[in-house]
Write a structure and sequence with these properties.
The protein has 398 residues and is α/β, with parallel strands linked by helices. It has a single domain, classed as 3-Layer(aba) Sandwich (Rossmann fold), CATH 3.40.50. It is built from 13 helices and ten strands. Strands 4-1-2-5-3-6-7-8-9-10 form a ten-stranded mixed sheet, sandwiched between helices. The protein starts with a helix and ends in a 23-residue tail after the last strand. 50% of the residues are buried. The chain binds 2-acetamido-2-deoxy-beta-D-glucopyranose (2 copies). It is an enzyme of class 3 (hydrolase).
Length: 398
Amino acid sequence: MNGRLQQWSVFVVCLMIVLRTESFFVDITYVQSAVAKGAVCLDGSPPAYHIDKGSGAGINNWLVHVEGGGWCNNVTTCLARTKTRLGSSKLMAKQIAFSGIFSNKPQFNPDFYNWNRIKVRYCDGASFTGDVEVVDPATKLYYRGARVFVAVIEDLLAKGMKNAENAILSGCSAGGLTSILHCDNFKALLPVGTKVKCFSDAGFFINAKDVSGAPHIQDFYNDVVTTHGSAKNLPQSCTSRMKPSLCFFPQNMAQGIRTPLFIVNAAYDSWQIKNILAPGVADPHGLWHDCKTDIVKCSTTQLQTMQEFRLQFLNALSGLGSSTSRGYFINGCYAHCQTEMQETWFRGDSPLLYNKTIAKAVGDWFYDRSPFQKIDCPYPCDKTCHNRVFDQQEYPLV
Ligand SMILES: *[C@@H]1O[C@H](CO)[C@@H](O)[C@H](O)[C@H]1NC(C)=O
Ligand SMILES: *[C@@H]1O[C@H](CO)[C@@H](O)[C@H](O)[C@H]1NC(C)=O
């Protein structure tokens, strides 16, 4: 090969890598100014986020997406959390990969690629609802998630979000729940003229009994709300009607949210199957173990139980209300969080519902091009699913 041809080949190979790379790394930003406001992670460290700035026509558009990671429900589990990235910004990776809804390429993220895209790190353990003034000198635990939420939004407003034309609050899992719980608060913090909508990925956790008949998730959420002092920060339209801890469930509080809201959720959400329907305590002999790691390993009776769970999920979803400002994309998959990964957000082989990818359904809804309120047929009818298969080792018995 002559020199010119070699150079050209190297150039073409590099170009192909750049075009095909589905993710890139973004540095962490610590919100130091939050510390003086007492808006800190469980261990007292500053909150943090990752931001990739918008460009061109997207320069005044802001996507604020909240990271997930379950909850801590008492001193023991919250203390354990301070030893992880989910309780301390000191332990967070300095860079994380952006893809899917965070992608900066139109071919991977057609409607939001040029927006300001922010991933807010989760480090309070209560979906950003906690606010306890007192810090126990023995444990030194800070329950301040609600303050963290406001401090992060204020920091982003100062960085240019005060000029936002379009803004979305979104999130995955516990962050998806945050995007529902804080939707109206987010809208209220933004300028009056900003078009604001919220969108929850895998955050519609339902109040279902576990396979032993116990109200496991209801008791767990009650502990979370009590430990973190969350009651005063949950939507008042709900807490005025029922016990605050029940207002952690979207089925009870989503209808009272005034800002437009979109729900993306698998009907057989793998986190919910593992932790709400068949948690370890409800399955002492581990009969559900294989089924929870891979849906194709479920027995006929287990699948029947999961079909009943789907019906409970759809019944709970009616708590969203039927207004066309509501959108939903409920696929019949065994999955959890489908927006942050390229393969489930927008790619040739991504999940489809009525021929639309999640990215297209959400984009069309946000820009008022078309509403989207669709529910998939029951498992195993949908051949576009990316059903999760969990590694036996990575899979903790909860
Ligand atoms: C804290 O919560 C965990 C998980 O639900 C539970 O196993 C443990 O017994 C609780 N600890 C205390 C001290 O209440
Ligand atoms: C989806 O698109 C394919 C190919 O474009 C078409 O044949 C099919 O009828 C569409 N299905 C639905 C449900 O719209």
